[in-house]
Write a structure and sequence with these properties.
Layout lengths: L1 H37 L6 H10 L2 H12 L2 H19 L1 H30 L11 E10 L2 E5 L3 E2 H10 L3 E8 L2 E4 L6 E8 L13 E2 L15 E4 L1 H8 L9 E4 L2 E8 L15 E4 H8 L8 H4 L4 E9 L5 H22 L6 H4 L2 E5 L11 H34 L1 H9 L4 H38 L12 H28 L2 H7 L5 H38 L9 E7 L7 H16 L4 E7 L8 E2 L2 E2 L13 E5 L3 H5 L3 E4 L13 E5 H7 L9 E4 L7 E7 L14 E5 H4 L6 E6 L7 H9 L7 E6 H8 L1 H35 L1 H9 L4 H34 L11 H27 L3 H7 L1
Parallel strand pairs: 6-11, 8-10, 18-23, 20-22
Antiparallel strand pairs: 1-2, 1-12, 1-13, 3-12, 4-6, 4-12, 5-6, 7-10, 8-11, 9-10, 14-24, 14-25, 15-24, 16-18, 17-21, 19-22, 20-23, 21-22
Length: 899
């Protein structure tokens, strides 16, 4: 069909040109006839005179066609048609090349789309994004520097806003998950909590109504207003224009809807667009109504909860802005010390501030996930290089097969440049088809990849994302150049006379060098990926095998959301007791315990006082868990010495606690921890006696060496405190989430509700970076190994075909079967060994950059290098087996008859 369309278009174009040429020639002929008549020729002689002067009309038309046409375009179209015919004649070659390029280009497109969204892509509607920054604080704590991008006190934000002159706009923001809706329609949703100045950073205009103003964002209590997100407006309100003035409940706040954000506006949460936006000074009313002093969130330095964004003034450099914001930050700490003399001094914390990217992944201290994602993106580029090397080998093999044909075409007058353009056009066509297939690979595989890297429900955009499409096109162009280099070089430097004399059997040394370079390159890159895969797999195994102090797999986390409902202490205790008793009565629940904090999600700490220690806080951060009895049974945390607290350790009974092994060693290195006295909150508090020592647990950071943690009965610590339960389930807890939610929801009063999730989901998020590295390195490593094995097999098989005559002569001269097999297999093993050595060297040199991404695993582990080397050699042996078997069947009589 394509060929018929091309023919029709060519015919229409040529017909138009011929018609115009004939009209032009007719006009000139009439002019020449008129000139002949004027010169005295008769009417019968004038036409003949005009034709003699005009010349051969056919030659004139051909010359005009050449001048009017675009030779380069004509040649390109001819090359495309030639390439299509060649691919149609060699479907195996075409499919192999397209599949290899599709995986290479698709891997790069998918990874770019994810990393771009995670780290680099600007937020929609953001004005002058190069001048908009997030403020990062750097603080020194016990000899280490900690970078803080969120959890900054609002008072610190106000001090920076009022104490700097380098910025035209300042805004505070955060994106908590709050209960939105009423009754059974209530769901926990992302909410954009922003100051009124936030809107000035964007060029967005409301799709409906208006945004809230500075007058509605005043401390200590802002107006109860909300701006709906466009998607939430469409899904929950059907896009109704009369939604303005309606009320939406956000936790305990009944906010009046005053506007709707425009389509595509996500604020600074493009991975999980907010359901709505509300003033930051209204937020605490939504979550802290029960507090006796909600204004403390805007007046004290002890509560950190916001992030800060700024816009640089024109002409202000980043260095000037950093110096300005650091001065304001130090002044803020000085102000805090005046209000609270016990606060950490600037001499100890050495606070500094820097402005950097809005997305923390591209900030001054990117997370482990962001760094791993960048490495995986580099791995995808290696996969593309391996695919290009494989396809280049295919092109080179086919070019060598048609070497005599190429020499004949050159002898007949076709230029080398013309043949080189044909080769590049064919590689470009293959790469273009491969890029389309690669975008399909990115679309289908990107969803699973995205789950390893980012959270939220934003869809995967491939065919509508021009940045990703641009990367795919760029990768295709790069692949076209790389795959066309080898055959083009052969054409440019081929020995025409020698090829014609030898019948295409010459140039074996040149063939060997070209194939060898490509094969060794494929092997080396495959070895690098395989070493990375084994390192990350072992690292992830170390993470999974590490005892974290509890068993998260059978545990459900139940979060109680009171939506601002304020209960007195007795009512809070009654509700907590009712929830625990109801949970213990649910089928398949083995144990239940009320809890105060959740590992890797929310941790709590308070001041401790121990006799003989001047400052316990200097030893590190001591976190606590207040829970009801049965906590250690629920979590599977082992008590090493002493006992756990029970129902008998209630309010009014002697105060008790259980401490971790690390905490016991740190506080009482030379004494028995059991029976020791610890005062909690203040040194005037009564003693809390250590009754047990539990195994160490991990609260926040898998790589942290400190495991200072202690446990107390909630009745003795804060009877009305805590906000959830841990339930130990019999078997997999996931199928029973909804059953548990419905059972506990029946106990909840009014508009309050509970949400249920597996605790393993929280813990697995902390393991995500190592899981990502293991998964992607293994996937890409296996893909690279398969591509390299196929390429090695193809080249050796081709070499055997080319050398059948030589092998026959060897057999006729007395070479034994094992000698011929050893010759073929040895060639493949030599390629593999060279690839192992080069790849091992590259991996060894890259180990200092890989080491920070691993967990309790050396990047220079000789066992890993040895295992990968053996694996590569075995693959080479398998790839050489079939060509070796074919070589072993060579007939020496055929070779002698040919001679």
């Amino acid at each position: 069909m394509r060929e018929w369309i091309a023919r029709i278009m060519d015919w229409l174009r040529r017909d138009r040109l011929d018609r115009e040429l004939r009209e032009e020639l007719h006009f000139h002929s009439r002019q020449l006839e008129r000139d002949a008549l004027s010169a005295g020729a008769s009417p019968d002689e004038a036409p003949y005179a005009a034709r003699r002067q005009l010349g051969n009309a056919t030659l004139v038309m051909e010359a005009a066609r050449e001048r009017w046409s675009v030779p380069s375009l004509e040649h390109f179209l001819q090359d495309v048609r030639y390439a299509l015919r060649g691919l149609r004649r060699s479907p195996g070659f075409a499919i192999t090349a397209i599949v290899a390029l599709a995986f290479g280009i698709g891997a790069n497109a998918a990874m770019f789309g994810i990393v771009d969204r995670l780290m680099f892509r600007q937020y929609p509607y953001l004005k002058d994004p190069s001048a908009v920054h997030r403020i990062y604080l750097r603080l020194s704590e016990r000899g280490t520097t900690r970078t803080q991008a969120d959890g900054i006190p609002y008072t610190r934000y106000a001090d920076i806003r009022d104490g700097t002159s380098s910025f035209s706009h300042h805004a505070a923001f955060l994106s908590p998950t709050l209960a939105v809706g009423i009754g059974d329609d209530a769901r926990e949703r992302r909410v954009g909590v922003v100051s009124a100045a936030f809107w000035d950073f964007f060029s967005a205009r409301p799709a409906l109504g208006r945004f809230f103003s500075a007058a509605e964002d005043m401390t200590p209590r802002g107006a109860d207003v909300a701006v709906l997100g466009y998607g939430f407006w469409q899904s929950e309100y059907g896009g109704r224009a009369d939604v303005l003035g309606e009320v939406v409940q956000v936790n305990n706040v009944y906010a009046t809807i005053i506007g709707v954000a425009p389509e595509g506006f996500v604020g600074i949460d493009d991975d999980d667009p907010p359901a709505l936006f509300m003033p930051i000074t209204t937020y605490r009313g939504a979550v802290d109504a029960a507090s006796a002093d909600p204004a403390r969130w805007y007046t004290k330095y002890s509560n950190g909860w916001v992030s800060i964004m700024v816009r640089r003034k024109p002409g202000v450099s980043i260095e000037q802005a950093n110096a300005d914001v650091t001065r304001a930050l130090r002044a803020s700490y000085q102000k805090e010390m005046e209000l609270n003399p016990g606060a950490t001094s600037t001499a100890k914390s050495n606070p500094t501030a820097v402005i950097s990217a809005m997305k923390t992944g591209a900030g001054p201290d990117p997370s482990l996930e962001a760094r791993t994602a960048l490495w995986v993106m580099g791995v995808s580029a290696i996969v593309l290089l391996i695919a290009c090397a494989n396809v280049a080998n295919l092109f080179l093999t086919r070019a060598l097969k048609h070497e005599r044909e190429t020499a004949l075409r050159l002898a007949l007058g076709v230029t080398r440049g013309r043949l080189m353009m044909q080769t590049l056009t064919e590689s470009l066509l293959l790469s273009f088809i491969g890029s389309v297939a690669g975008l399909l690979v990115a679309y289908w595989g990107g969803a699973g990849l995205r789950q390893l890297l980012v959270a939220g429900d934003a869809p995967i955009e491939v065919f509508t994302d021009w940045r990703t499409i641009g990367v795919a096109i760029g990768a295709a162009l790069l692949a076209a150049v790389l795959t066309g280099l080898a055959p083009s070089f052969m054409i440019a430097h081929g020995d025409l006379a020698n090829t014609l004399k030898t019948g295409g059997r010459g140039g074996s040394s040149r063939r060997s060098r070209a194939h060898s370079v490509l094969l060794v390159l494929q092997g080396a890159l495959s070895v690098v990926l395989l070493i990375g895969a084994v390192l990350f797999v072992r690292s992830f195994d170390n993470v999974k095998a590490m005892r974290i102090g509890y068993d998260a797999e059978p545990v459900l986390f139940v979060n109680r959301n009171m939506r601002g409902l304020r209960l007195d202490s007795a009512s809070s205790v009654a509700l907590r007791t009712a929830l625990v008793e109801k949970a213990r009565a649910i089928p398949r629940v083995e144990a239940a315990s009320w809890i105060y904090s959740v590992p890797f999600r929310s941790t709590s700490a308070t001041r401790l006082f121990v006799a003989g220690i001047d400052s316990v806080s200097r030893l590190g951060r001591f976190t606590y868990q207040a829970s009801s009895s049965g906590y250690f049974e629920v979590m599977g945390t082992r008590i090493k010495r002493g006992r756990a607290y029970t129902d008998a350790d209630r309010a009014g009974a002697p105060r008790v606690m259980v401490v971790s092994e690390s905490m016991a060693r740190a506080l009482w290195p030379q004494a028995d921890p059991l029976g020791q006295c610890v005062k909690v909150h203040a040194d005037t508090m009564p003693c809390t006696t250590v009754i047990g020592i539990a195994e160490d647990m991990i609260q926040n950071d898998l790589q942290s060496s400190t495991r200072f943690h202690y446990y107390m009965p909630v009745d003795q610590f804060d009877p009305a405190g805590g906000n959830g339960l841990f339930l130990k389930m019999r078997g997999d807890p996931r199928p029973h989430q909804e059953m548990v939610r419905k059972a506990l929801q029946s106990v909840m009063p009014g508009q309050t509700f509970v949400s249920v999730m597996p605790l393993s989901d929280v813990v697995d998020a902390a393991r995500r970076s190592w899981q990502l590295g293991a998964t992607m390195f293994v996937a890409f490593g296996v893909l690279a190994l398969i591509v390299a094995a196929i390429g090695l097999h193809g080249v050796i098989a081709y070499n055997v075909t080319q050398r059948m005559h030589e092998l026959g002569v060897r057999a006729a001269l007395g070479a034994q079967l094992k000698d011929i097999v050893r010759l073929v297999v040895g060639e493949g093993m030599a390629f593999a060994f060279a690839g192992v050595v080069l790849g091992g060297l590259i991996a060894f040199l890259a180990s200092p950059w890989v080491q920070p991404l691993l967990f309790q695993q050396s990047a220079k582990d000789p066992v890993v290098y040895g295992v990968v080397g053996v694996m590569m050699l075995l693959v080479a042996l398998a790839a050489s087996a079939s060509p070796a078997a074919r070589a072993a069947r060579v007939d020496p009589n055929t070779a002698l008859r040919a001679e």
